[in-house]
Design brief:
- By secondary structure, the protein is mostly beta strands.
- About 15% of the residues lie in helices and about 40% in strands.
- It has one domain: Thiol Ester Dehydrase, Chain A (Roll), CATH 3.10.129.
- Strands 1-2-4-5-6-3 form a six-stranded antiparallel β-sheet, covered by helices on one side.
- The longest helix has 19 residues.
- The radius of gyration is 14 Å and the shape is globular.
Length: about 140
């Protein structure tokens, strides 16, 4: 797999943190990205990108995997709201100075028609730099 279809995530343009999917199956999605180095990354604060933003990277990987699972099942992807973050840990304060790509791995813990729970990890050069769990609930957004 390569590029990400814009219809699969509610995030557009510079708000989409993932560049491409390198692997996926029924339980796991592996995405790669270099958006952490982009000067116009909207999650930067005072010119830096804190490692806590990797939660958003993990949440986007969860959303993308869920959308692809729905398409595989012949169901339209649903909008969802991030409702919980648990057990987040990171080994560094900032990530904008990391050369090369990040790898974001999202794994299904629980998936129903109405809610999803995933674990995620962010890796750089094969080393885990952050991990956590994210949960979302289906939500019909106005106008959808």
């Amino acid at each position: 797999m390569t590029g990400i279809d814009e219809k699969l995530l509610p995030h557009r343009g510079i708000s989409r943190m993932l560049d491409r999917v390198s692997r996926r199956d029924a339980t796991t999605l592996v995405a790669r990205t270099s958006t952490h180095r982009a000067a116009d990354n909207p999650l930067r604060h005072d010119g830096r990108l804190a490692s806590v933003v990797l939660i958003e990277y993990g949440a986007q990987a969860m959303a993308l995997h869920g959308a692809l699972r729905n398409l595989d099942a012949g169901v339209e992807p649903r909008s969802a709201l991030l409702v919980a973050v648990r057990d987040f840990s990171a080994i560094r304060d900032f990530i904008d100075d990391l050369p090369g790509e990040l790898e974001i791995v999202a794994r299904v813990l629980l998936a129903t028609a109405a809610s999803w729970q995933y674990s995620f990890e962010a890796l750089h050069d094969g080393e885990r730099i952050a991990s956590g769990r994210v949960a979302a609930m289906a939500h019909d957004l106005p106008g959808s």
